Amino acid sequence: MYYKNKSYRTFYYFNIALLIIVSILCIMPMLHILAVSFSGKSAAESNLVTFFPIDFNMESYARTFENPNFLNAIQTSVFRAIIGTLFGMAVTIMAAFSLSRSRVDFKARTFYIWFFLFIMIFDAGLVPNYLLIEKVGLINSFWALILPGLVNVWNMILMMNFFRALPKELDEAAIVDGASTFRILFSVYLPVSLPAIATISLFTMIGHWNSWFDGMLYMRSQEQWPLATLLQTIVVVQDFSKTGITPEDLELLSNRSVKAAQIFIAMLPILVVYPFLQRFFVKGIVLGAVKE
Amino acid sequence: MKNTHIITSTAQSSTARIRRIPFQKTWRLHVLLLPAVVLALVFKYAPMPGIIMAFQDFKPWLGIEGSPWVGWDNFKLMFTLNGTMQVIWNTLLISVLKIIFGLVVPVLFALLLNEVRNMGLKRSIQTMVYLPHFMSWVILGGILLDLLSIDGIVNRFLSFLNIDPVMFLGDGTWFRVTVIVSDLWKEFGFSAIVFLAALSGINPDLYEAAEIDGAGRLQQTIHITLPSLMPIMVVVFTLSLGSMLNANFDQIYNLINPLVLKEGDIIDTFVFRSFQDGQYSLATTVGLFKSLVGFILISGGYYIAYKWANYRIF
Predict the structure, then answer these.
(1) What is the model's pLDDT at position B26?
(2) Of all helices (H) and strands (E), which one includes residue A229?
(3) Which segments of A38-67 does DSSP mark as H helices, in order?
(4) In chain B, N or C terminus with fewer CB closer than 10 Å?
(5) How many helical (H) and strand (E) elements, i.e. helices and strands, does chain A have?
């Protein structure tokens, strides 16, 4: 066998070493941020922290959670993730079910497919989209963060392809038993599609949690911003007036560790759902991406 | 009544006939599609007429109905302004390099990971390399600004190696390198999933036969693995051509600063800045240009992927 060969064995150990280094490089920046967020002022300020906290303390987190702006933003983000995902999945599943019918059963299918495909490949652009949101009166409304994203054509296609891969006998049996279209969707398709639904839901949820640009574009007042938008102004624009840290605090705290703590808080929900996601997503992605 | 009719008619027919039962009435299918159709009409189709702003000198207080028409002037302006040509060039350069590295590196990574036979190790590596994909560019932008600053941890490491500090985000050329490498770092693992799936689908008999013929692992890779990956590589490449004018707004917007505006500005950041400056018509024109080119590239990409690799998304 080739793997008993000496030169292959040399390659093999080199390869494993390389892959381990590469994977550590992928999580090192996050570990560094975590370490900085728990470090004391002098160490963080003079940049001595690498991957372990120096002068361990949790002041940055304590201060961050005392800031009403930040709590508000977390609340908005949680709401939008939950509501956006629930509504989005409902819209996606219903549409995908209809689109998964064969052309023989559902003559209008081809029309609908092109109707949705077109919005996936052509976008009106930033200014027309903004003016529309203004026209329908959604500026400064929470729903501006939800409604435009509810139709996600890519998710619809993933879901549709999953439905189409289910055995035809399932709905034939249901039809013979006299089940209506709605009954077939809710009592036959939904229960067997839970893994796919879970995967797409988690992706949608993470998308909502991470989404920052719509908040910046459509929300004029800072109190309504989701966490990602607030974070953007803190860590990227470096507008520290929004961290909620007073000059007195800065005698004990470094801006750097406060920033790190807020970045880490924004990462946390993703890290929490990540293990669940991993169980499913490989299957889900492949399902939609490579359809022969 | 209807149900009894179906049951009696199927009871008499063979199983082959059951396949042809009409799927009841289709109005329910239209109802299920209704929310998606309404939302798409309101939020995706309704803005489309707005692209006529590209042919106007649009003033928000006059609206689309009242703004004066200027014909192709905005397009002429776009192609003569030095700034916009630079922006289009930056976009092309950054996105083409991203596309090339974004194909080669994930394939290489998938090939190398495929050699790991210890499943626990393989899974741990996958867990770590997929993680950055799920982080937003706000988070990663914040992290990179800290890591790559002049006194950041990367430059401290370089000075430990006696290398002069590098202005990763403050020098035009380094900015482009940083943008491409950090995008690669974020996405290479996740992009490799599709290749790993294709690798696990290769018939093991092929390797066994090659083994008997005395082929080493490298020869097996060249003569079996790579040809088997070719179709999916063609698909991924042609589909990624669609993003040729899409150099990633989220990433660039969160990393760019005035020092590197000339080398780092891309179409989307330019559009957003023009919009903020109130140049609605110019922003719409450049955006429309991007959408049209994207439309052609994406449909072309799907067509080629369908013709060459029999890839279909629906």
Answers:
(1) 81
(2) helix A227-231
(3) 41-45, 59-66
(4) N
(5) 14, 0
**CA A43 and chain centroid, separation:** 33
Predicted-complex ipTM score: 0.86
List, as ranges, residues 59-88 from B with C-beta within 8 Å of A: none
Its CATH architecture, for the domain A68-242, is Orthogonal Bundle (1.10)
Q: Are A268 and A41 in contact (CB under 8 A)?
A: no
pLDDT at A174 over 90: no
Residue found by looking up tokens 């992290």 in the block: B143
A68 interfaces chain B, CB cutoff of 8 Å: no
CA distance A48 to B58: 53
Q: Does A50 touch chain B (CB under 8 A)?
A: yes
Question: Please, are residues A243 and A259 in contact by the beta-carbon 8 Å criterion?
Answer: yes
Greater confidence (A71 vs A278) lies with A71
CA atoms of B112 and B107, how far apart (whole Å): 9
Both B95 and B138 in one domain: the answer is yes
For chain A, the domains span 2-45, 68-242
Shortest distance, CA A290 to any CA of chain B (angstroms) = 7
For residue B183, pLDDT over 80 is answered with yes
CA angle A277, B112, B305 (to 5 degrees): 70
Q: Is residue B67 part of a domain?
A: no
Dihedral angle sign, alpha carbons of residues B219, B225, B228, B229: negative
Distances (CA, A) of B36 to A194, B40, B43: 21, 6, 10
Q: What is the pTM of this model?
A: 0.86
A56: tokens are 């361990």
Domain assignment of residue B55, yes or no: no
Domain range for B34 is: 2-46
Query: Of B22, B50, B129, which is closest to A131 when you measure between CB atoms?
Result: B50
pLDDT tens profile B37-65: 999 999 999 999 989 888 888 888 888 88
For residue B165, what are its two tokens? 């500090």
Asked if B28 and B148 sit in the same domain, the reply is no
**Sole residue written with tokens 């505006």:** B261
Please tell me which residue of chain B has the smallest CA distance to A33: B143
SS (H, E, C) B16-58: HHHCCCCCCCCHHHHHHHHHHHHHHHHHHHCCHHHHHHHHECC
